[in-house]
Amino acid sequence: MNATPTIATPTGAPGRPVRLGLRENRLQFSLLVIVSAAVGGLVGLERTTVPLIGTDTFGLTSDLAVFSFIVAFGLTKAVTNLAAGALTARFRRRQLLLAGWLIGAPVPFVLAWAPSWGWIVAANVLLGLNQGLTWSMTVNMKIDLVGPARRGLATGLNEAAGYTAVGVTALATGYLATGYGLRPVPELIGVVFVVAGLALTLVVRDTAAHVALELDRHAEPLPAGEDTGLARIFARTSWRDRSLRGVSQAGLVNNLNDGLTWGVFPLLFTDHGLGLAAVGLIKGLYPLLWGLGQIPTGHLADRIGRKPLIVTGMAVQAAGFVLALALLDRPLLAGILSAVALGLGTAMVYPALIASLADHTHPSWRTKALGAYRFWRDVGYAVGALVAGVLANALGINATVIAAALLTAASGALAARWITERAEP
Prior knowledge:
Layout: E1 6-8, E2 14-17, H1 26-44, H2 46-57, H3 63-66, H4 68-87, H5 93-104, H6 107-113, H7 117-146, H8 151-180, H9 185-188, H10 190-203, H11 208-217, H12 230-240, H13 242-271, H14 276-304, H15 307-326, H16 331-359, H17 366-395, H18 397-418
Antiparallel strand pairs: 1-2
């Protein structure tokens, strides 16, 4: 295979030579990085203001009711992630990416002018559909483009773009809310993300030819008669395969942490005297470090392996929750140090988990496995919000933070026990 094969286009006409690699596909990869930033920016609209809209604008007094928007988002995104893996067998990735943007277009407007809390929850159903389709497709398309050797870096760049945008938007909405109120100005910056995402999706090319090329080169052919149906792959990813089971549970707990901090931290730190700008700083710093940190950690995952980053990252996240409570008499310091630990820990874990999953899956059913993993990972949002709501109502907000620290430490121990390294054949 010294010569680079030419892959036919879907219409049967000969296309340009297709190569796997980051440098070889730098233009398309760069466009997809910008799309990922728009995806993250849209969900970043909610990080600072929406829990406070629930309490201050709509007068919600139950923590579980306040966190219901995160439950709606997490469950919808999780199911959409799972469906997205199966839908790639019938639709091209670019088509699904475009559908995700069209579904998400109303979200900024509903958040800005919703007449009741029910509208906010409904907007998060649309946001979950949007995120499940757009984020799944951008990460799949980047993995398609770069091939096996650079998966860690590719997923790191993807998640870095998305979560850096989450952080910048959380910071921006906090400062805008300080000057203009909780609504509608902070939410309307989401229109920029929707327009940018739609426009770039119309420009970027599909990656079906790159998938075909990797399948052609893959050293391990799919065994004859192997069942690659969605149910079989879901079971394999969720519990049958030891390493994939370890990846899935770690992903769930990782986003449980994010869902919990999404709902709890604005309430925790405003209760201890911080204003919207300070809360926006805390809520923005966490995903900023999470995002930017994934560029070096994704590269590191390709050099030293996936497991060391996953296990260490979970331990650092657990320490972040401990810091939030240990220093709460100085709430700004507590919030900043907690955000730094949570952000850096998550940056270590996130690209390594996706790269580990890719290492243990065949190209022919990888999108289904990734959909199953992302299902469990984003169920974590809903579980985190439910745990936070129930514990906060029963025992107080501090109890939810303690629970998150314990669950994260336990998840890291399971990852150490179950996940194995596997060199790409």
